[in-house]
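Bench log. Compound arrived from synthesis this morning; before running ITC I wanted a structural hypothesis for how coenzyme A sits in the protein. Inputs:
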Amino acid sequence: MRSLLFVPADAPKKLDKAMTSGADAVIVDLEDSIAPDRKGAARETAAAFVREAMTATARPRLLVRVNGLSTGLTDDDLDAVIPARPDAIMLPKAEGAASIIHTDAKLAAREAIVGLPAGHTRIVAIATETAQALFVAGTYRGASRRLSGLTWGAEDLSAELGAEANRDADGNFLDPYRLARAICLAAAAAAEVQAIDTVHVDFRNETALRRECEDARRDGFTGKMAIHPAQVAVINEVFTPTAAAIAHARAVVAAFAAQPGAGTIGIEGRMYDRPHLAIAQRLLTRAEAAGVA
Ligand code: COA
Ligand code: MG
């Protein structure tokens, strides 16, 4: 998933628009973009939308962001949306393996009740929204086969830290959030799941968005969340492997295939070893998913 577009669950017009936005995934939000007294109505719109959208051909992946485990709202969220069979739920304010195992059990119960195959519903977790979350980010590995991605957020973390700002005057994230970003990246790599970059809230600034996408890709993120449809094209473009990158990855794979058992090989005067092969294979998988390989 290169682009994951957030849509408030109580905004039917935006939900429809998101389906044709070109986003690889749509995240129907029941959490921060929904006022407390509208949660019930939003659950109903979310379930109706997902049920309908699941039947579309060539549809984006459909995620629902539920409310965090400490809110007491998660069970009602899941009761409402799991019968609509979303591809995944997004778990905000996740705190390591314990919260994934807890959510896995909740999902398993609902899947059994509605007759879905066990494990159908994947989990993408937001791994840096509380201070405690930063200290348990190393525990996601092996927590659940449902876990398919980790992402990070700066807004809730800055509130929890009591910060006055999370970006400097030039719009760059300050140290605590750079740390959260790096922790998310390492946590995802350790858990062998996708690392997804956080939202860029300044949605009219395409130049800044592009730079943030390129920085993220450089560091190992393979997708980014969006809050506005205008952000989708840039995100998809930056996270689609280039023709040159694909050609290079194919050359690495072919060179290792030509020398079975070799641990290290040389291509055009540079050394490549097994980790390079794994990187090349992952890039080709992403290229295939993006329809360019
Ligand atoms: N998904 C789908 N469509 C969206 C959208 C989104 N996230 N954000 C905006 N649009 C639509 C608008 O409805 C509008 O449609 P129209 O031309 O048919 O009227 C069009 O795109 C242009 O919108 P624009 O006027 O530029 O923005 P806005 O002022 O209406 O909305 C936000 C700005 C930030 C309120 C809106 O982008 C939004 O709701 N984003 C998601 C917020 C969210 O889910 N946050 C939680 C995660 S951080
Ligand atoms: Mg939040």
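What the model suggests: The pocket of coenzyme A (ligand 1) is lined by residues 5-8, 13-14, 17-18, 29, 32-33, 199, 227-229 (CB under 6 Å). The chain has a mean pLDDT of 96.
ITC booked for Thursday regardless.
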